Please model this.
Amino acid sequence: MLDALTVAVAVTALALAAWCGIAAYRDQPTKDWHFIGMAVVSVLALAQLLVGIVQLARGERPDQGMTIFIAYLIGAFASVPAAAFLSLSERTRWGSVTVSAGAVVLAVLEVRLYDIWGN
Amino acid sequence: MSDTDRTEAHTSTGPEHEASRPDAPREKQRFELGTGPGRVLVWFYGVFTVAAASRSIVEMILDFGKAPLAYILSAVAAVVYGFITYSLVRGGETARRAALVCCAAELAGVLIVGTWARLEPSAFPDSTVWSGFGMGYLFIPVILPVTGMIWLRHARND
Model:
């Protein structure tokens, strides 16, 4: 369940990064549709955070330690909303670059999360 | 203060000086550093502040004795990143200069710690944010200060 979500978040995050990258390439700011995309990725990341907590509560333990796992879960959940917030007040192509960078950071965090959980 | 401005305006022939009136009072208005391309830098520096700070805090709490030097260096990196983020958001000439100095310190830190850890691995039983020239972070710790300094030099001319 957690692994499936990790893959899903990573893939949608990369798609979002590419989408906003195209917007930046076309010299466009982020638009409503982009924000809907960010919301979808954020909801998936939130689901991952909740599932991760449930797994911990069930007594399952990540390979590389619980503190690091929780820190990465929170970081993964916060990254896209934080980038979205920055792009709200930057109505140029650079707002799109910021969201794109935020999504790439999320994808990297997912790879690390996969390692930290192990199995 | 206005005298120096006057002489500066007369001696320089740069286009940016011609645009401003020579007798105008010294510009109190802060220019923005965290907009446009700077917004992307704010994002990355923000991420690295959080990453370095949480990393060093977690490592210090879990086992400070394992590699105190490495953990303290990570904490120093976090402070430098945090200050640059703050300066970018604040804007203005003072913040620009301060951020420029910090970017240079950051670059020096990455290069020194990277080289040091390579020459004397025993000094670093555990890695820092800056070990291996930031390899664990996709070399962004090396790229970021260079990009930052280019942006900060460019920002003044706008």
About this structure: The two ends of chain A are 13 Å apart (CA to CA).
